[in-house]
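Appendix B, example 12.
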Amino acid sequence: MDLGITGKVALITGGSRGLGRQSALALASEGVKVAICGRTNSSLDSTVKEIEEFGVDVVGILADVTELDDIRSLHSEVCNSLGAVDILVNNAGGSLSREDIQGTSLDDFKKTFDLNVFGGFELMKLAIPHMKENKWGRIINIASIYGREYGGNISYMSAKAALIAATKHSAISLAKDGILVNSIAPGSIEVPGGSWERFQNDNTPDVVETFISNNLPMGRFGWPEPLGDLVAFLSSNRSGLITGSCIVIDGGQSISMI
């Protein structure tokens, strides 16, 4: 299937590892020029080398999406190096607190929103003018099943729910401009150095097996390649009628039917 996005420019935040890395690789395999950002030079350099093997233009940029100045510099550097952003994948995310409301400070709550919502929001605003001018654009926000139903901690769950809501509202606003805006809600997907790998390393085999038995119908943690492929499809001309959606990719883990 030809996705029709050869030569487009994509920016993937948190693209040096995990789900962001897989998204970058999937887009590069379709001939997309790729910019990734991350917070460590070593992981950026390693992923850039992987992307270069697809024969596409690529740039790795050191940036912290919780810092407004970094966000603006990031967008400017991508535009100067590869061209204006056609495809934006807001993947950077995480949580500073693992507690409920009683154990979470307001400062940590706000910082979790900085990481999961506000940085992506600002990048969307920076990327949209070019997309509107071209009457073509794709924005994909990586949320979580815990933004759709109960799970995780209060900061992460609240931030991902807000990201899904902002995605829906933006999609309706931009639908007539040829800009498709969607979110993806991954379940428990294992990636090197990720939270689900740490969960398995930090707990006894019995605890891990109980979690799998109770939560993962496929009997195993998820793997990143299907998410990368979904990102590539949503970035393509083949996804023309999909906007405002939150697509779950969790191997049946979610309880919710909607």
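The first strand starts at residue 9 and ends at 12. The chain has a mean pLDDT of 96.
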